[in-house]
Amino acid sequence: MISFTTDDFGNGHMRARSALARRIRDLPPLDDFLIIDDEPSDAKWLVSSLKLACGHAVQVRHARSLGTALDAIKSAQPNLIFLDDRISPVDSALTSVPFIRRAGYGGPIVIVSGAMTRQRAVELLRTGAAAILHKDDIESARVAELLLAIFGPKSPR
Length: 157
Known about the structure:
By secondary structure, this protein is an alpha/beta fold. It is built from 6 helices and 7 strands. The protein has a single domain, classed as Rossmann fold, CATH 3.40.50. It has a 5-stranded parallel sheet, sandwiched between helices. Strands 4-5 form a two-stranded antiparallel ribbon. Strand 4 and strand 5 form a beta hairpin.
């Protein structure tokens, strides 16, 4: 049964999303993203989430292989790369990150994975990943939180 005195009918959730949207506007311009993922349907979820979080004018490029991604990086440096942890047939994020760095990209890389252990996450972060995003968590609010964590003002420690 719905209680009109205790249920906020999703207003709390909507207030939190609105606060995220306001904070995203304060970030430096984020207008070019590169998704490296061999599965187009997975990339589409991320494209939709990025456009909802950053606006529909952002450019989101998609590369289905590491070779295509390296060409895309050389043609224009993205603000952020989303890298699938497993790119068939044999590439993985651990082996791909060094190639991406040698191609001249020095920005943040977010590893996207459907199955992540703590040990693997630690390895990937040591390799230079800025963050890990589980495929089950791909939605605009989570993407906005990641962008704020990566590009927002750093809190003093």
